Amino acid sequence: MNVKNKELDRLDAMIELLILSKGKTKIIQRIIKSVVNLIEKFTDEKLSSEIKEFELCHRYLDPVLLALFDDPENGVLFRWTSVTNQEAKDVSAKGSISTHRPDSCISKLNGLHFGKSLGFVEVKPSSEKNNKYSISKDLVRLGVMTKNSLDISALKGCMGIQVVDHNIEFLMNKLQVDGTYIFTEIASITVPSCIADLGAYPQYFDDLIAILECYEKWCIPLPRDEISKMYSKRRRSLPDEQFESLSPSRSNKRRSVTMPSL
Predict the structure, then answer these.
(1) Where are the stretches annotated Disordered (predicted)?
(2) Is this model's pTM higher than 0.85 or not?
(3) Euclidean distance between CA atoms 57 and 232, whole angstroms
(4) How far apart are CA 212 and CA 190, in angstroms?
(5) pLDDT (tens digit, 9 = 90+) per residue, 68-94?
(6) Nearest to 122 by CA among 165, 90, 154
(7) Does residue 95 surpass a pLDDT of 50?
(8) 96 phi and psi angles, rounded to 5 deg
(9) Angle, nearest 10°, between helix axes 26-41 and 10-21?
(10) What is the pLDDT of residue 247?
(11) What's the farthest any 2 CA atoms get from each other in the chain?
């Protein structure tokens, strides 16, 4: 790679890639933009210091996820958020674990206000990658948050994105039949950690195309004539009390779990 070998200035490389993206499909342009963002943000070599969650989000994940999902021209914003998502404020969602903030969400604007949530992100840094309890709980939270968005915003599908260290898993939740929500993995990628490793990123381009095609196909409102039918198929989310009874309150791996009577 010319940038890696210092044969090409970073800014020149970014300009060349942006010129290359002209005339390409929107999906290809987004993927090229993610490469541009990574070139701008990355250090030459992998850092030896521990990467905390904030640094992981804003230096390594944001260049990719912002390029893929942020689309202000069409009223869609990718947000690192510290507030409760819109669906959790709805009466039917209260008491759910989704009332806790997601690490990030993809929001559709409603005029000058944040509206429907098209996707959610949960992040765990490298220090948590062996904490199976915490990672599993994040996955459940993603399932509930995406389910609530389907129920309240009347979407065809809602995307969940689970990040552990530099590994990103993309999932789609859909209400398939009466009371049955299917949370399916689309693909997973690994974000490089420096310019020296950037050459491994193109191997995921086909996966990124598939992810964005699924996102554009499913993360949209249902047609008006299908909304009432969808409302009859939805079910209430699991409340906090029941969720906690199904899982230990702490991450002690040896702790036994007593299943409640259903």
Answers:
(1) 241-262
(2) yes
(3) 38
(4) 16
(5) 999 999 999 999 985 444 555 454 444
(6) 165
(7) no
(8) -90, 155
(9) 180
(10) 62
(11) 66
- Joined together, the tokens standing for residue 86 give 């819109």
**Contact assessment for residue 11 and residue 4, using Cβ atoms and an 8 Å cutoff:** no
At 197, list the tokens: 């490793």
For the record, the structure tokens of 142 come out as 């993603």
pLDDT 10s digits, 188-220: 999 999 999 999 999 999 999 999 999 999 999
Closest Cα partner for 160 from 181, 177, 144, 137?
144
Distances (CA, A) of 222 to 17, 121, 151, 158, 199: 36, 22, 11, 12, 40
Q: Which amino acid belongs to residue 210? A: A
Q: Are strands 104-110 and 180-190 parallel, antiparallel or unpaired?
A: unpaired
Six-digit token string for 124: 């765990």
Domains of the chain, residue spans? 10-246
Report how far residue 254's alpha carbon sits from residue 123's, in angstroms, rounded to the nearest whole number.
24
Distance CA 235, CA 219 (A): 20
Distances (CA, A) of 193 to 38, 44, 200: 9, 9, 10
Inter-residue contact 44 to 195 (CB < 8 Å):
yes
